[in-house]
């Protein structure tokens, strides 16, 4: 399955730790967003694209399926996959796991392609769709 992989060390982000010594709920969203943003940047949906065009992917919905706690010393393997591509939207799933363990969480981000100045949704270009397709489950 095509996916974008990244590694994250929790210890490098002390703001993600709660008073119980575990990763906060909000940090799960941040971890998935870091991986997704890296994947999107690699295919051209980057900060440079936003600065040049005023367009970007905005998060419209986020779901998190928590499975196990993540501690302060965890090394995370994070895998992002494009689940579906719409005319103006993208759905990405992200699997967060502690190295060598079953997934600690899975997220589902729904992004909408928006023209920032107008606030209107805009269609993804053929090149953007092609780049996103490289990260789909079936590679097409």
Show the helix and strand layout.
Blueprint: E1 4-9, H1 25-42, H2 47-53, E2 55-66, E3 75-85, E4 89-98, E5 103-115, E6 120-121, H3 126-133
Antiparallel strand pairs: 1-3, 2-5, 3-4, 4-5, 5-6
Features:
single chain, 140 residues, alpha+beta, 6-stranded antiparallel β-sheet, 6 strands, 24% helix, elongated
Low-confidence stretches: none
Average residue pLDDT: 94
Terminal CA distance reads: 11 Å
What sort of overall outline do the alpha carbons produce when their principal axes are compared? elongated
Order of helices and strands: EHHEEEEEH
Helical fraction equals 10-25%
Q: What is the total tally of β strands?
A: 6
Rg from C-alpha positions?
Answer: 16 Å
Specify the structural class: alpha+beta
**What's the tally of helices?**
3
Give the biggest sheet.
6 strands, antiparallel
Give an overview in words.
- The chain has 140 residues and is of the alpha+beta class.
- It contains 3 helices and 6 strands, in the order βααβββββα.
- It has helices at residues 25-42, 47-53, 126-133; strands spanning 4-9, 55-66, 75-85, 89-98, 103-115, 120-121.
- Strands 1, 2, 3, 4, 5 and 6 form a 6-stranded antiparallel β-sheet that branches.
- Strand 3 (75-85) and strand 4 form a beta hairpin.
- The chain is elongated.
Structure summary:
The chain is α+β, with helices and mostly antiparallel strands and 140 residues long.
